[in-house]
Amino acid sequence: MKTKLRVLISETFDPWFNIATEDWIFRDMLSDDELENTKILYLWRNDNTVVIGRFQNPWTECNTEKMDADGIKLARRQSGGGAVFHDLGNTNFTFLSGKASFDKAVNNKIITNAVNSFGLNAYASGRNDLLVATEDGEKKFSGSAFKETKDRSFHHGTLLLKADMSKLSQYLNPNKKKLESKGITSVRARVTNLADLNPNITHEQICQRIIQEFFNHYQSECEIELLDHQYLLSLPRLNQHFQKMADWGWRFGEAPKFNHTMSERFSWGTMDVYLDVHHAVVEKAQIFSDSLHPEMIEQLMASLHNIPYTKEAFQNAIAGVARDLPMIQDYLAEFESFIVKEIS
């Protein structure tokens, strides 16, 4: 039976919609009968976004404080792997198929053939990376990740075309805090933009070449399907995926268990704080201090227990203690300012 192809291109740059669309395509677009005879190529871009892997901790992977200040979105994908920064200088690809016919080597070859049509020498390396030969040695231009269920698989990755490399260091390096995470840590590698090697490589051009290589490999063609916001909003199941991808509980609350220790010397005493955090909730708060107000320490430990790991939750908890202990509101205001900055 001839392989049926579908090519979808997103016309929105919203990362939560794009990742939700990918999940919708993966889980809901194809019936069981269609799986083994259909291959899907999905091309998309996110603007100003950090995307973390399924089992990563955003606070240890990202500078969440700077992201918040600069309006950078955080997205968590369903697949594993490390943290990446996306802007419109990145082109993202996704291949979806039935599990039995899934072949990442074929997918990699489609991508590298498209890149090499611009006169470059690109090739797959290891399990996840695509490299390109340069005068300064081989450099990474693409990383990928995979997800599968019992009957279907996807393989997705990002291509660095003209990404703002300065933002990689701005947003993917967390503040220097004493955080010990039980999650997966990203591995940094030497990377390059393909447009630095050939300025003719644009998003539109590379998409055209990838689509053509996709058609060539499967010896078939199809109409290109453009996915805009209005179309996406019309699909109830897709909106369910979107609500999950956009939800704080998914993006932050799925963080694996970690410990956060912090210390500060105030005029009224030293505060050593130890937090055990799981799924972005403080499971245990311990404070050691030489302050002359033990009732403050006791109430703070009680109030910080079982609250979300957000600055708003900490502010509300400490405000409650300040209402009970008005005589030391100034101390608590100093402590609040310190701890909110630490967890931001």
Beta-strand percent range: 25-35%
- Helix/strand order, N-terminal first: EHEEHHEEEHEEEEHEHHEHHHEEEHHH
How many H/I helices? 13
Overall geometry comes to elongated
Uncertain runs with pLDDT below 50, 5 residues or more?
A: none
How widely separated are the two ends? 55 Å
Q: What order do the strands of the largest sheet run in, or round the barrel if closed?
A: 7-8-9-10-6-2-1-12
**Sheet/helix structural class:** alpha+beta
- Main β sheet profile: 8 strands, mixed
What is the tally of beta strands? 15
Averaged pLDDT? 88
Short structural summary:
With 344 residues, the chain is an alpha+beta fold. Helices cover 37% and strands 29% of the residues. The strands form 3 sheets. It has an 8-stranded mixed beta sheet with strand order 7-8-9-10-6-2-1-12, with helices on both faces. The chain has a 4-stranded antiparallel beta sheet with strand order 11-13-14-15, covered by helices on one side. The chain has a 3-stranded mixed beta sheet with strand order 4-3-5, sandwiched between helices.
What does this structure look like?
This protein is 37% helix and 29% strand. Helix 4 packs across helix 7 (203-218), helix 11 (294-304) packs antiparallel against helix 12 (311-324) and helix 12 (311-324) runs antiparallel to helix 13 (329-343). The strands form three sheets. It has an eight-stranded mixed β-sheet with strand order 7-8-9-10-6-2-1-12, sandwiched between helices. It has a four-stranded antiparallel β-sheet with strand order 11-13-14-15, with helices on one face. It has a three-stranded mixed β-sheet with strand order 4-3-5, with helices on both faces. The model has no long low-confidence stretch (mean pLDDT 88). With 344 residues, it is of the alpha+beta class. The protein has helices at residues 15-29, 58-61, 64-70, 104-116, 165-171, 194-197, 203-218, 229-233, 236-246, 248-251, 294-304, 311-324, 329-343, and strands at 4-10, 38-44, 49-52, 73-76, 84-86, 90-98, 122-125, 129-134, 137-148, 152-160, 178-181, 224-227, 258-266, 269-278, 281-289.
